[in-house]
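User: Now give one protein:

AI:
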Amino acid sequence: MSQSQSQGAPRPLPVAFDELGQRAEVRAAYAAVAAWLERTPPAELEAKRAEAELLFRRVGITFAVYGEGGDPERLIPFDIIPRVLARSEWDRLSAGLSQRVRALNAFLADAYGKQEILKAGVIPASLVTGNEQFRPEMQDFQPPGGVYTHIAGIDLVRTGPDQFYVLEDNARTPSGVSYMLENREAMLRLFPRLLARHRLAPVNRYPEDLLTTLKAAAPDRAGPNPTVVILTPGAFNSAYYEHCFLADEMGVEVVEGADLFVDENVVFMRTTAGPRRVDVIYRRIDDDYLDPRAFRPDSMLGVPGLMAAYRAGNVALCNAPGCGIADDKAIYPFVPQMIRFYLDEEPKLANVPTYLCEREADRAYVLDNLDQLVVKLAQGSGGYGMMIGPHATAAERADFAARIKARPADYIAQPTLALSTVPTLCANGVAPRHVDLRPFVLSTKDEVRIVPGGLTRVALREGSLVVNSSQGGGTKDTWVLDNDPQEGGAAHGAVAC
């Protein structure tokens, strides 16, 4: 180790894969976009960026960050340069995503049922039944249709032309799909001619697919037109815009806990025309706050008696309570084994190698290599409680070493991946920035639906690997080409915006 590194200087990361390609050999999927960037004056790009910001401000596309002072409502940064995937790339991803979510649902059914994977020793029982997200209230009960995580968000990263990894699974209340839809709408308004040059797989069917998924979860007695609502914690939730957006797109009501009540194990919604029976609740409230009789008694956000109505089979909750054991970062390393155990298939998407700090050997390795690893809270989210070793100072690494020693079960660690980069409009022009991708996977008992693409999140700060909007990241429109252009062609020809 050099003297500068020993004093805490950041370590260099491996060279990242550039999805655009090199100037002399632009990747075929990006050919038209590269030509457009080459021929569009920087002032025009900046004008379009300002127009996009004005559009987002008028529509009110915001997210909330509390506890940092100032105005908590912020515009989510939107980059006007799209991220492009070839159809063949998406088809491989889609097959892997479907496989993974099917295995996660099978695991949830087993964990709250016969627990065969625990008895077989594939996953340590303590990681499941001792997990704070494990809900004994869900044991020996099967949700309508046998589906637990109806809406999943699977975070993917890319490190090479054919190298995609699952970074984490979001099986509880994944957010961000409204930004995916609004990003496409913004691009259609800003650059209609550029989009016309591409045959893009559409994303606007997602609300229809979501409503179909939710209706499929309804109890049998509900008939062909069940009443669906979105249960929100309220206007102070960071994703409140999304709750209202999806309710409007699906034509359903967005409700708070006080708008619902339970009578004789049946859920009703208060309306001006009197009580109306509710069949499906797309809940955007954490388990702890769903029902003060079943979980936290001090919750003012939930509905007293909701779990009793759910277990009686009179209402569906999407996603089911207890899904948190499927997206815990300490469970994540075992998903490939789940796929083999339940589906008898080899995983189509790879995991990032992961070290569980509660294991003595793993912990020793992590403590010896903190300058090379990313350390995360096993149940953290939003980019908080995380340390990127190569970018951390010696003091920060020492702090995390102390945390790991004090509470090893709370932490996992992974190698620092060189996330792929895509062209992004920055203060000094177009430059590469690191990205990830969150596709949204919808599951019923009969099928899995995935809208092509998903939410691309981009780390707007130079060199940063943190893409979360609460940590300075932004979003991009994700284009999946409906046809695969031939590789090897350099960008050429004028493209009007």
